[in-house]
Design goal:
Elements lengths: L12 H7 L6 E5 L5 H15 L7 E4 L3 H15 L7 E3 L1 H11 L11 E2 L2 H14 L9 H13 L13 H20 L1 E2 L1 H14 L1 H10 L2 E4 L7 H11 L5 E5 L15 H8 L4 E5 L7 H11 L20 E8 H17 L7 E5 L5 H10 L4 E3 L9 H14 L4 H7 L9 H14 L3 H10 L5 H21 L4 H11 L2 H6 L3 H22 L12 H17 L10 E5 L8 E6 L10 H4 L2 H15 L2 E15 L2 E3 L5 H4 L6 E4 L17 H5 L2 E2 L10 E2 L3 E4 L3 E9 L6 E6 L3 E6 H4 L2 E2 L1
Parallel strand pairs: 1-7, 1-8, 2-3, 2-6, 4-5, 6-7, 9-14, 9-16, 10-12, 10-13, 11-12, 13-14
Antiparallel strand pairs: 14-15, 17-18, 19-20, 19-23, 20-21, 21-22
Helix pairs in contact: 1-2, 2-3, 4-8, 5-6, 8-10, 12-25, 13-14, 15-16, 15-19, 15-23, 17-18, 18-19, 19-20, 20-22
This protein binds adenosine-5'-triphosphate and magnesium ion.
Adenosine-5'-triphosphate binds next to helix 2.
């Protein structure tokens, strides 16, 4: 691009002011969709074109790797040059790059390995055992949380003040042992990446000087979600000298539970010299209906820096609120609706389905699969590929087939039961040597004394557990088998002991698997109406699960619907957005309802969700839902009530709009009374209408009062002469029109 002013085209005056501000510290504080990320990208381009900033002098921090990639592409388009080697990435990826480059100064082996939080946990468990520390008093998850917390605060074991507290002292000692083990093995966890690179720069003045010299400008997107360590890192690398641009929105701070400090915004203003602050107030993303709803919602928070946000865009469609009879119907509504909308113009990638908890994706995924809609899960794993699900499935496979070596290896020591890698090595070797399954190798090795003592006992206990579970399975229904297996293998407790959202999420997923099984035998969710009972059903279920895990992953470039948690949706935008499960207990999450601070964070999360939508937003909830293995009747979320009712419309069935929502519930029957309920042709259902006389084989004669849903799942309320009013599912009720 030759003309530098072209970079300022398509920016409003506040944005232009920010983009072209002289090199210096700049804070852009503004609401969702006001162009913060756009300003960041254009400012980089501007600095390069107008101020001669070298691409190699840029350090830009984004929130996800995907965002980094996107920023790079946008810049390349703006500038018309390749920027493959510029420093654009997440805090973690940039820290990683520093450590790889300067591994010697960082006192790391050249080929150090990054461990994720599962590896980290395994390591901690082993330490507890090696040092004979009581895992009841020091649950591994808590130790893990403690260590990560220390690192986030920039503290090494020697720097933690225990104030003479023995318990804390023990934790610090564990942190110390953990760190020693990592050092010995050349292992680096996520927190370590940041802390280690901070120390690298801090303790090597020459290196620090080099980078301070090198970077001519530092940029940070989503600044409201930086934690203490990231802030300290930023302060160090800039020396508060390197001009720094940060953009953020306090209303979108959603990682407080992971140590993010929204106060970093005011710290930046106070601690970096001469910060110029620009506020952006015009939103370019959403219709005014969506924006007004978002503004109204967030105004219920007390803790705010306060911002205005307006749009001169069209009012757009109202926000649709849909209440399903149950979660299954909610999923069907979403898929039906998005199919309609993508048939008339929208691409599938323009559609996002957002949820609060990962477990909610299962039903949505299955519904999408059944309706042949390609989808991708963004920033997470698909349900049947999740670790905890694969573990249960491995146990279940073993029930059916002891010779399934992959499954046996997967769970022989999950949860930990004292079967070490050496024991597994012995079994694996024997199996390979004699071409026998591991299961056989296990028994042979005990019989001929290859495995003795504790090792022998441990593997026998495992084998007995599998036999026992198999025995127990006889006579149980499919979902009972799965429930039994999760409980008796210790998998539930295993995840329950994990602290925070992650463990909670895994337990929810296990419960969700039981739900899947329950529906499976009812022939409802999968296309398997004759699934059979018990172990026969289990076999069918496992095949289905394998298919769900493998085949349906949309190709990288295939146009597909985007599924993600609300947290992962940050910074993104989509023409059509569904926010699902908008219910008390689910969203706001039950763990947050009690604490005002966390409730406000949930509301910010909802604000993030609402402001992802460009043209159309659906908020859906269900009147009953299977949650934690129980049927619950959640109330609609308080967030629904916090939205101005004139911006909402309630929808029931496809295309049928009733009236603006006034009360949260009820009163929907009116409209349905005028409709007729059409039978589903291929199901050979009778064609009925409200007021029609019908006969039921058991209840006798009656009159149809009301109807809901469609096709085989439609329900009708019939007033019977002798039995009173009853709701019946049309597909099952065998009603004969009179
Ligand atoms: P979030 O808070 O969600 O991260 P943001 O403030 O970073 O949002 P952007 O993603 O930069 O906002 O911009 C939102 C949308 O508005 C984008 O599609 C962007 O291209 C568009 N946009 C921003 N500013 C303008 C403008 N001046 N003219 C036209 N479109 C704009
Ligand atoms: Mg942004």
């Amino acid at each position: 691009m030759d003309d530098v002013t072209a970079i300022l085209d398509q920016l409003n005056s506040a944005q232009r002011e920010a983009v072209s501000a002289p090199q210096g510290n700049l804070l852009v504080l503004a609401g969702a969709g006001s162009g913060k990320t756009r300003v960041l990208v254009h400012r980089i381009a501007w600095l390069m074109q107008a101020e001669g900033l070298s691409p190699y002098a840029l350090l830009a921090v984004t929130f996800t790797n995907k965002a980094a990639k996107e920023m790079r592409t946008r810049l390349e388009t703006l500038l018309g040059l390749s920027l493959r080697h510029v420093w654009v990435g997440t805090f973690h990826s940039i820290a990683h790059r520093l450590l790889r480059t300067h591994w010697q100064d960082a006192r790391l082996p050249q080929h150090f390995q990054i461990i994720d939080s599962d590896d980290q946990l395994r390591l901690i468990k082993r330490l507890l055992k090696d040092y004979s520390i009581d895992a009841e008093r020091f649950p591994p998850r808590q130790v893990q949380g403690f260590i990560s917390g220390c690192k986030e605060e920039g503290l090494r074991p020697a720097q933690v003040d225990t104030a003479g507290d023995a318990y804390l002292g023990q934790l610090v000692e564990l942190y110390h042992f953990y760190q020693l083990t990592c050092e010995r093995g050349g292992l680096v966890d996520f927190g370590e990446l940041l802390l280690r690179s901070l120390e690298l720069l801090r303790d090597n003045p020459a290196l620090l000087a080099h980078y301070r010299e090198r970077f001519g400008h530092v940029m940070v997107d989503e600044f409201q979600d930086t934690n203490t360590l990231q802030y300290a890192w930023l302060k160090l690398i800039t020396g508060q000298q390197t001009p720094t641009t940060v953009v953020g929105d306090d209303d979108q701070s959603i990682y407080g539970w992971r140590g993010a400090k929204v106060e970093n915004i005011s710290r930046f203003e106070n601690e970096f010299p001469q910060v110029k602050t620009v506020r952006l107030e015009q939103n370019y993303r959403s219709t005014s209906a969506i924006l007004d709803a978002a503004n109204a919602l967030i105004s219920h928070n007390a803790e705010r820096m306060g911002k205005k946000l307006w749009t001169d865009g069209a009012k757009g469609e109202p926000i649709s609120v849909y209440a399903g009879f149950n979660d299954l119907e909610e999923a069907r509504f979403i898929v039906d609706t998005l199919k309609e909308r993508t048939a008339t113009g929208l691409n599938r990638r323009d559609v996002a389905i957002l949820y609060r908890s990962n477990a909610q994706s299962r039903l949505l995924e299955e519904t999408l699969i059944r309706q042949h809609v390609p989808y991708r899960i963004y920033g997470g794993r698909r349900f049947y590929e999740r670790l905890e699900i694969k573990n249960v499935l491995a146990y279940l496979r073993l029930l059916l087939n002891r010779d399934d070596d992959a499954s046996l290896e997967r769970v022989i020591n999950v949860p930990t039961r004292g079967i070490g890698t050496r024991t597994v090595e012995i079994l694996r070797f024997r199996a390979r040597d004699q071409s026998i399954p591991l299961w056989q190798a296990l028994h042979d090795s005990v019989a001929d004394g290859t495995l003795k003592g504790r090792a022998a006992n441990a593997v026998l206990a495992f084998a007995n557990l599998i036999e026992q579970l198999d025995n127990d399975a006889a006579g149980l229904a499919l979902h009972e088998i799965i429930e039994h297996v999760t409980a008796h293998t210790g998998l539930i407790e295993h995840h329950q002991s994990e602290r925070g959202e992650k463990g909670q999420g895994r337990v929810e997923n296990l419960e969700e698997l039981v739900n899947a099984a329950r529906n499976f035998t009812q022939g409802d969710v999968f296309d398997a109406p004759e699934a059979g009972e018990g172990l026969v059903a289990l076999e069918a279920f496992l095949s289905e699960a394998a298919l769900n895990a493998g085949d349906h992953e949309a190709e990288e470039f295939e146009d597909s619907v985007q599924l993600m948690t609300l947290h992962s949706a940050k910074g993104l935008e989509f023409p059509l957005v569904f926010i699902t499960g908008v219910e008390e207990g689910l969203f706001p999450h039950k763990m947050s309802i009690e604490e005002p601070g966390r409730l406000e964070e949930e509301r910010r999360l909802c604000y993030v969700g609402v402001t992802r939508a460009m043209q159309k937003l659906y908020l859906t909830h269900a009147e009953t839902r299977r949650l934690h293995g129980k049927e619950v009747f959640p109330r609609p979320s308080r967030f629904l009530r916090e939205l101005p009712s004139e911006l909402l419309e309630e929808v029931r069935m496809r295309g049928q709009i009733s009236r603006p929502v006034t009360a949260a519930r009820g009163g929907l029957g009116q409209n349905l009374r005028q409709q007729s309920v059409e039978g589903d042709d291929d199901l050979d259902l009778p064609s009925l209408h409200i007021g029609q006389a019908v006969e039921h084989p058991v209840f006798g004669e009656g009159v149809i009062l009301n109807a809901e849903g469609e096709g085989a799942r439609a329900r009708v309320q019939v007033s019977f002469e002798h039995e009173g009013a009853k709701w019946l599912v049309l597909g099952f009720a065998k009603l004969i029109p009179l």
